[in-house]
Prior knowledge:
Helix content is 38%, strand content 17%. It is an alpha/beta fold.
Amino acid sequence: MVSLDICLSGIYDVNKFINTSSVFSSMNGVQQPEKFPSGFFWGTAVSAHQVDGGNMYNNWWEWEQVEGRIDQNDRSGDACDQWSRYEEDFSLLSQLNQNSYRFSMEWSRIFPKKGELDKLVIEHYHQFLDALKKRKIEPFVTLHHFTEPQWLNRLGGIERRQNLPYFKDFVNLVAREYSEDIIYWNTINEPNIRAALGFFLGVHPPGKTGVYNYLKALRNLLRMHAEAYYILKTENSQNLVGVVKNINLFEPYNSQSRIDRMIAWVLDEGMNSNTLRGIRTGKLPLSVVREYKNLQGSSDFLGLNYYNRNFCSRKFEGFFKNHSDDADPTKLCTGLNWEAYPEGLYLSIKRLWEDFKLPIYITENGIGTTDDNWRKEFLVNHLIQIQKASREGIPIKGYFHWTLLDNFEWAEGYASKFGIVECDRKTLKRKIKESGHLYAQIAKENQLPMKNNDE
Ligand code: FCB
């Protein structure tokens, strides 16, 4: 008799992590791994500054030059040089059976100076998109992924509302230029995280701190999102446009403690609910009356980035910590200390679905680790949560693993290795990891892999 099991090269005990019975459906008495929905998008996600290299006109480039800001004083430099090696990388995508790719277009490259377009860059992105099309890989394009042009910062950056028209110029241009080749648009990547790291904690540019700056930046990012949505839908009503929201789960450290519960509520409100509510109702965060035109209902789908959860208590610095007391330190995400919590992906999907009743794409999910077996386990355990939610009828349309290549992980520099493909720091040579091969097999079969025990 053929017995089927999830195959993860027998490296770890899947039963410890997975309720295997839930992943199989019975067909004519034979257990089959459940298929993902047909037409499911299998991809990886990257952002321009983290992989392209030579991004010298944006605020991150400037930020990195100051010692002490980036782990090991790393600088993005050539990154993975995807700017010139995209043909090679897209061939890798084909080898990995990917039918989609999420990347960002770099505003500061298209407009290196205020009001000045770089025609070569416009052409470059045409070729880039052609190279994907040739391989039947669907582009998912992000318009803003953490970076802004240096010239914009000199004019007061995104925290200055008067600068909004510059973003609209950029979006108008790409909408006109590339609408024929792009259907799926992500407006802003993680507005709350961009605002929190750059304007509340001050660990990303421009290094500002405090609630007031956070709210100012967040509101403007939501205005940018709303304007981008409006422009793209006006350009072509067939465009599918959505925000990318990171769901950071906040739980009370001690569920019996009213204070812990209250802290969890406040952090969730500030980092999740305010933005989701904003997009649903048009109300900007922390404002009872002020609505922003075009914000209400400004998403055709939701992009969900999911990594981890946090435990909240007043005894922790910043009122939360991102792993449990008994977390295995060897399994935490390098540099960021995130603890894997796959069920949180299911909970986040449910939350978005209940709030919006819109299709969901998992636009990021992954782990920074040098233990590639652990990455495989992480991958499967999260995909199982997607199947669980799909089984309940929630339309989850794609999964973009973060990330394709080991790349520049912002303030963590190059130490945090999220890639399913290794990118040698000296030679920039690419090498598919075991996790990459596993992901390729899953994408090809549109199901989790199985093992024939008789073999
Ligand atoms: C997300 C960012 C992405 C990457 C991952 C690890 O918050 O969107 O660029 O840094 O975290």
